[in-house]
Amino acid sequence: MTTALRRRPVAVRATLAATALLTLAACGSGVTEPAAEPAAGDGVTYTNCGREVTLDAPPEAVVGLSPAQTELLLRLGVADRMVGQAQTATAPLPEDVRDLAADIPVLSEDAPPTREVLLNAEPDLVTAPTSYEFSAEQGFADLDQLADAGVAAHIASGGCAERRMTATVDDLFTDLDTLGRVLDVDDAAAELADAQRAVLDDVDERVAGRPQVTVAQVYVEGERLSAIGAGVEYDIVRRAGGANVFGPDDAAFADFFAAEINPEELAHRDPDVLVFGVHDEEHERATRAWLAATLPDLSAVRNGRLVAVSSADLFPGTIGNVRAVEAVARGLHPDAF
């Protein structure tokens, strides 16, 4: 059943899409969700994570639920339509867009905003990197609650629950196409997509024909060590010319893209390079110190082949995915740049 409520000038209608669409969206070769299509009048209909959403007009009040999504919205030129940004303390915005966000209200710092805080901002559209930002059990507004309040939502294609394990860097282009149409900024979205494709094409040319370098992508928080074995993070290493030592075929990653491991397991795999996500400079220093103290004989540590990447750049459906591909490629194949 389709529902429609009007709490702002933009009306939102959401329905469940066909089961076949979910199956297609979950395949590993790319997102196959239909492109956003015109609705009656100036509206648009799009399919996202198995839900069909119709807006009767371009959104006038938008919220980015993570720094990565906020950056994407800023680069699409809709800063004047943003009524909120969230999780601002989890990663800094890139310096070239930081000033654009200076006057955008901060709805949360270390976690997604609560249901009440988000709805009080009165958005027409909220964008998120994953479905986690809509977890009702965490106190966040879920997709049905948002729809009931007349608020549309867009989750990065690679962050949909059924897609998270098989997401790829190229999912970004599906999201840019959709958001360009939804926000009525098609030209800006196309220009941004072309620029990102150019970066990826350049990396492809530089690493083509070079021997793959073995890589482990890890995350260190305190004394806990986690490895990445699936998802867009896995694809970032692949696109950069690396061979992941952890992968989807490992039992630890059968159900989730990340798993806690012990240092001995990482030492056994002994990758040439370690890629690790960091929140800020302090976290990077702490991670490097922990690796040096805990795994001094690991080849990557002993040879100083450690590549730090902003954690925000590893979320699905972000411009940062492209930055991460280039940064990792430079770390794996420095003589190619």
UniProtKB/TrEMBL annotation:
InterPro entries: ABC_Transporter_SBP, ABC_transptr_periplasmic_BD
Signal peptide bounds: 1-25
SUPFAM superfamilies: Helical backbone' metal receptor (SSF53807)
Transmembrane parts of this sequence: none
UniProt keyword list: Signal
Superkingdom per UniProt: Bacteria
Family per similarity comment: Belongs to the bacterial solute-binding protein 8 family.
Name this protein carries in UniProt: ABC transporter substrate-binding protein
Species name: Streptomyces mimosae
